[in-house]
Amino acid sequence: MHRHLKARGLILIYHRVTEERKDPWRLGVTPERFADQLETLRGLGVRIVSVSQLARELAEGRPRRRSIALSFDDGYQDNLTQARPLLERFEIPATLFATSGYIGSGQEFWWDVLEQVFLRPGELPPALDLIVGDESYHCDLGVDAKLTPARSESLLDWKPFQEAPTARHRAHDELWQLLVRTAPEPRSKAIADLLDWAELPKAARASHRTLSAEELRQLARDELVEIGAHSIHHPGLGSMPKRIREQEISGSKAQLEEILGRRIRGFSYPQGRSSLEVQAEARAAGYDFACGSVYEAVTARSQLFHMPRVSARDWDGAGLKALIARHLPI
After folding, report:
1. DSSP secondary structure code for residue 79 in this structure
2. 3-state SS, one letter per residue, for 272-294
3. What sign has the CA pseudo-torsion 143, 148, 150, 153?
4. How far is CA 217 from CA 13, 114, 132, 227, in A?
5. Is 48:41 a contact under the CB 8 Å cutoff?
6. 66 close to 300: Cβ distance less than 8 angstroms
7. What b/e sequence results for 17-42 when a residue is b if at least 16 CB atoms lie within 10 Å of its CB, and e otherwise?
8. Range 133-151 burial, b when 16+ CB lie within 10 A, else e
9. 309: Cβ–Cβ under 8 A, 6 or more apart, which residues?
């Protein structure tokens, strides 16, 4: 009860609205369940605002109670084709924090490449030797070089960093840990080399496309969806030298402003992680606010450059209502 009395707002994190079933990071919500969640939000009698509105009120020291904001991270195409029509139907605003270097790139996010290579059915070479930045990576897949459709289907519920059921899953996790702390340029080369090794195309699958520049403009054509920045290449900022951090933070802002012809006010940290130094760099880059993923409500004491958010999963409306009830009085 004491926590609820202090709570003023809640920022929900989404990534995708999709029917995609192979989703190890649990980034997707189906269109049907997203619609149910939005209908539930409308029925709660809460105040639904943009993230920037909530940030302005926090900056002024007057965040209003029972406020909820929706945010999307990354910049998948389904934010336009699936999410936006439902946001329009229920007249609910949202904020997309876009990873600017992937906009119009025709390439998949690096974590989706790992999923495609290691978790999809098919046969891979028996061993992998890969240069990842300054490190060498080697793995022997053995009998797990081949993954049958039936075996892949049986492992749909597996989550990263759980016990690995195959050598492929172990390689997926080990490479994720290497790539998240690798600078953008050598990481891109490692991803290209990995796709060559697996004999897979470098072009994005239709199911995992990112927005083009024109699609981003369509998404932001009115005030329903505001656009924020989410770095250029989605690195782990805490692992990057200062020069790369500043380029990722300020460069993303500049690229999106060039595409949209308007000021970008907000930033969200890749993987939701930051430090006091990274937060100061976001402020210095000219943003008004920045979001992390501290799993709590927004209160009058929340930090403007580390605003907390909570993840919304593939639940029905009742599941979302239960999440909100844990953080806000409804």
Report:
1. I
2. HCCCHHHHHHHHHCCCCEEECCC
3. positive
4. 21, 29, 35, 10
5. yes
6. no
7. bbebebbbeebbbbbebbbbbbebbe
8. beeebebebeebbebeeee
9. 11, 12, 13, 71, 268, 272, 291, 292, 293, 294
Helices (H), 45-109: 51-59, 78, 84-90
pTM passes above 0.90: yes
Residue 139 has pLDDT above 60, yes or no: yes
CB-CB neighbours of 115 under 10 Å:
19
At residue 34, the pLDDT reads 98
What pLDDT sits at residue 2?
A: 44
How many other CB atoms are there within 10 angstroms of residue 171's CB atom?
24
- Whose tokens are 């999709």? That residue is 18
CB distance 294 to 308 below 8 Å? yes
User: Token match 């749909």: residue?
Assistant: 156
